Amino acid sequence: MAVMERRVTLKSAAQIERMAVAGRLVAEVLDRVGAEIRPGVTTLELDALAHEMIRAAGATPSFIGVPGPAGAYRHALCISIDEEVVHGIPGRRAIAEGQIVSVDAGAIVDGWHGDAARTWVVGDVPEPVARLVEATRDAMLAGIAAAQPGNHIGDISAAVEDVALKHGYGVVRQFVGHGIGTEMHEEPQVTNFRSGHRGRRLEPGLCLAIEPMFTLGRHDVRVRPDGWTVETLDHSLAAHWEHTIAITPGGPRILTEHPARVPEAIGA
Length: 268
Fold this sequence. Notes:
Layout (H helix, E strand, L loop, with lengths): L12 H24 L6 H14 L3 E2 L15 E5 L2 E3 L13 E10 L2 E10 L5 H19 L7 H15 L2 E2 L5 E3 L6 E5 L16 E4 L2 E3 L5 E3 L6 E3 L5 E3 L2 E6 L2 E4 L14
Antiparallel strand pairs: 1-4, 2-4, 3-12, 4-5, 6-10, 7-8, 7-9, 9-14, 10-13, 11-12, 14-15
């Protein structure tokens, strides 16, 4: 979701644990949705599955009700396919062999948000496409590893951009990462490219959504007439990965992953 101007907040250890509950639910939703991505499944079916899971957990989908130029968003997921970068609206279209599918999910548990995205390949895709998806994930992890106490937002941005530069990918500039907490979009913004400024110093309690969006072509994008779906201007393919993290004294902690799969802090 696009970033709006919000305040910067630092979270206590107890509040981070509450965010981790929301984050684990988002991870479970993405696991389940990913297992259902195959040719013939509609994006609306995937959205219904996510909505049911979130509601069954006593949580609220973060995206429903978010205001936009075409009215409030009405779905639990954003599902973007091929040249769509972010904010794709679920509908009756069926997923096809050879596509890449990006799914963005968010959940609110007891007032706290979790937000994450992953990109899947459907069946066999050309090597450059598979490499784009993998490299975008690598860039997210590089950005997370750079999110050490005492570093700055600009260090995250540089780490993400370096992966794109290595492969020659376009880095989407109009949509960026963000702070997160009791609001889905808080300050500071986290660009995926060097902005020329170091940005805010990272300190324990700061929670961020780091989300690189890379393309196989240029970085330019546009919003479709539906008011939500963002697509590449040159129709090149795009990938999107995102994790919600917390800065801790020991390093960054991923909140939107299962604890058994990721260490408490990485890159320390």
